Amino acid sequence: MLVLTRKPNESLMIGDNIEIQILGVEGDQVKLGIKAPKDIDIHRKEIYLSIQEENSQAAKAKLPNGLLEDLKLLQK
């Protein structure tokens, strides 16, 4: 893990197109501003993990008998 020290209004760059700026520090909270291309998803980690778990559960779900064949017929 890379650990950096930044002051309010200072930034760091990830690659050429993602900038993270420290907007402020209040007590034990840090307010961040993130500039990134619109095609990059940005989530809090707990939300990201929840999405990953839901995707994993959906991938394990079984389709009702015949549903996959019905969907294939609709594509034709």
From TrEMBL:
<keyword id="KW-0678">Repressor</keyword>
<dbReference type="InterPro" id="IPR036107">
    <property type="entry name" value="CsrA_sf"/>
</dbReference>
<dbReference type="InterPro" id="IPR003751">
    <property type="entry name" value="CsrA"/>
</dbReference>
<keyword id="KW-1005">Bacterial flagellum biogenesis</keyword>
<comment type="function">
    <text>A translational regulator that binds mRNA to regulate translation initiation and/or mRNA stability. Usually binds in the 5'-UTR at or near the Shine-Dalgarno sequence preventing ribosome-binding, thus repressing translation. Its main target seems to be the major flagellin gene, while its function is anatagonized by FliW.</text>
</comment>
<comment type="similarity">
    <text>Belongs to the CsrA/RsmA family.</text>
</comment>
<comment type="subunit">
    <text>Homodimer; the beta-strands of each monomer intercalate to form a hydrophobic core, while the alpha-helices form wings that extend away from the core.</text>
</comment>
<keyword id="KW-0694">RNA-binding</keyword>
<keyword id="KW-0810">Translation regulation</keyword>
<dbReference type="Pfam" id="PF02599">
    <property type="entry name" value="CsrA"/>
</dbReference>
<protein>
    <recommendedName>
        <fullName>Translational regulator CsrA</fullName>
    </recommendedName>
</protein>
<keyword id="KW-0963">Cytoplasm</keyword>
